């Protein structure tokens, strides 16, 4: 337990305090989008748009931090031989990943909370405290599968390859899952693909909860499937990496 607490403390300093650019990027981009679409380009939008787009930008923030920030931090640890140090220290890799997950989940909570504060005090969104908490908790929990994917991507090649992959994945996922603009505006094939993505499933669940409608079991099942796929991918890429290391 002491080793885990120490690792959490180390990760807090390494990931958050010493890398403020990640926080600025992860929070700043979704917040800028939210302000732009609700305060500047909001002509003809229904009254419910500000609340719906809040959910989208909260999920978009988790997508950025869970894929880009996670992949870059794990890649940095690999390049700087930090993971090799972990392998010969009392701290196991599962402890390392769990401690990193705790810090990144905390970062996710901060990101969503900041966007919620902007929505309430600047944009003027009015909701009960239960809805604010629902967005915060559900979007954070749903980001776990995305984080596992982010870790997996870090083992898929050099820094150039990983950065290319995360950008190729993150922004198309944001668009296809309807986070930037409504899915209904896209071609039928794009809607079909988008409805399969984990970020779309999260959006469905969160919106159903805050609007107090029946929660889609398909969306919950989709989230579980994506978590299993992410865990399988992480296991596979780590096994491949260990095989290459032995050679």
Automatic annotation (TrEMBL):
The keyword Nuclease does not apply. It comes from the Bacteria. It is found in: Membrane. Signal peptide: none annotated. The chain crosses the membrane at residues 21-41, 53-75, 96-123, 129-149, 161-181, 215-237. It is a multi-pass membrane protein. Keywords: Membrane, Transmembrane, Transmembrane helix. GO terms for molecular function: ABC-type transporter activity. This is ABC-2 type transporter. The lineage of its organism: Bacteria, Bacillati, Bacillota, Bacilli, Lactobacillales.
